[in-house]
Design a protein that fits this description.
The protein is built from 15 helices and nine strands. With 358 residues, the chain is an alpha/beta fold. The mean pLDDT is 97. The strands form two sheets. The chain has a seven-stranded mixed beta sheet with strand order 5-4-3-6-7-9-8, sandwiched between helices. It binds S-adenosylmethionine. S-adenosylmethionine is lined by residues 138, 149-150, 153, 186-188, 191-192, 209-211, 214, 237-238, 252-254, 257-258, 311, 315.
Length: 358
């Protein structure tokens, strides 16, 4: 017996659902085209060089006109570029350019498509893990994940970290301005470490991550950003990073990725000086699943299924906190690790910024 024979089908509901699925299928395949536009500089050239026909854009970017023509048609159908039938020219309005062409804009999202690409490229490993129950470690993913995470999160950090998140913490901005010792744990490519080091040249910033290629990349990025003097990057696990008497320890979008976030928080508690601050930045989430059933929650639950939860399950303890833990669950982890106070200092649609004190 088929499903359609066992239950009455509401035709209107079916049509509406198929409309949604067609939209989702278009979105899912269009991601690959965003990667192409990003890699070949098609968005940048269109945004910076102005309206162009397919032939003009191909010439500007040294690419093949036939491919660019098809790509532009798909972009116009996506609403990622505008099309003028009178001149057969394509163009990007300022809002499209901010999201897709300008790496320094606070809403730049093209880099996120490298994270999405890794979900497809690594899908067979995660499928196998569903069967075995084992984890998939950070290092087992395609390298586009590491770059994509840096590029996706950096926009948000660049827009808010120094301007509003640090000032929202009790007395931390003043300490950093005067000269403080900071550990950025799970620092990845060091986007957050470098932004803080640029803003507070009197302070020293120690970036730790257990993924060696990320640490190498962070060192190179710090050199090119001109902050090699007040940054140091070292391979270390969150539960064992070196140093004591830190004034500030930060974890940006990584505590939930760890197998033992409580053990990591306990180590952070020991490494802080008695008046220090633990700044925990996590993906935005409400406490209850039902309240996270929205586009941001959808994206984060998907990333959590493909990346964060498998990574946590690959490590000791294997708590599998997930990227949508929410403040109450995070509070349990942090207070059970010995912190006595925790409060929400700030939030954005993508992040919760929590302040914990010993
Ligand atoms: C989603 S990325 C965030 C990276 C960076 N903080 C950022 O915001 O761009 C998670 C990072 O946590 C690191 N990580 C995961 N488990 C770890 C552990 N147990 N100890 C140290 N680093 C860990 C990964 O290597 C990865 O760089």
């Amino acid at each position: 017996m088929t499903i359609t024979e066992t239950a009455a089908v509401d035709t209107a509901r079916l049509q509406a659902f198929m409309g949604k699925m067609v939209g989702d299928m278009s979105t899912a395949i269009s991601g690959a085209l965003v990667l192409i536009g990003d890699k070949l500089g098609l968005y940048k050239s269109l945004a910076e060089g102005g309206a162009a026909t397919a032939a003009e854009l191909a010439k500007r970017t040294g690419t093949a006109e036939r491919y660019v023509r098809e790509w532009l048609a798909a972009q116009a159908a996506s609403g990622y570029v505008d099309y003028d039938p009178a001149t057969a020219r394509f163009a990007m309005n300022p809002e499209q350019a901010m999201a897709l062409a300008s790496e320094s804009s606070p809403v730049y999202v093209a880099g996120a498509f490298e994270v999405i690409a890794s979900a497809y490229l690594d899908e067979s490993k995660v499928t196998a893990a569903f069967r075995s129950g084992k984890g998939v470690g950070w290092h087992e993913h395609h390298e586009c994940l590491f770059r994509g995470v840096e590029r996706f999160f950096r926009s948000g950090y660049a827009a808010s970290l120094v301007q509003s998140w640090i000032p929202a913490l009790d007395g931390v901005k003043e300490k950093l301005a005067g000269g403080a010792k900071v550990a950025d744990v799970g620092c990845g490519h060091g986007a957050s470490t470098i932004l803080m080091a640029q803003a507070f040249p009197n302070s020293s910033f120690h970036g730790f991550d257990f993924h060696e290629p990320s640490i190498e990349r962070a060192r190179a990025a710090a050199r090119s950003a001109g902050v090699a003097a007040n940054t140091r990057f070292e391979v270390a696990k969150a539960k064992g990073f070196p140093g004591r008497d830190y004034d500030l320890v930060t974890c940006f979008d990584c505590l939930h990725d760890m197998g033992d976030p409580q053990g990591a928080a306990a180590h952070i508690r020991r490494a802080l000086n008695p008046d220090g601050t633990f700044m925990l930045v996590e993906p935005f989430a409400h406490d209850d699943l039902a309240d996270n059933l929205n586009p941001v929650g959808r994206m984060y639950y998907a990333a959590s299924t493909m990346i964060c939860t498998p990574n946590s399950l690959s490590q000791e303890v294997g708590l599998g906190l997930g990227a949508q833990a929410g403040e109450t669950r995070l509070r349990e982890v942090v207070t059970s690790a010995g912190f006595t106070r925790m409060r929400r200092a700030a939030e954005t649609p993508f992040n919760l910024i929590l302040e914990a004190r010993p």
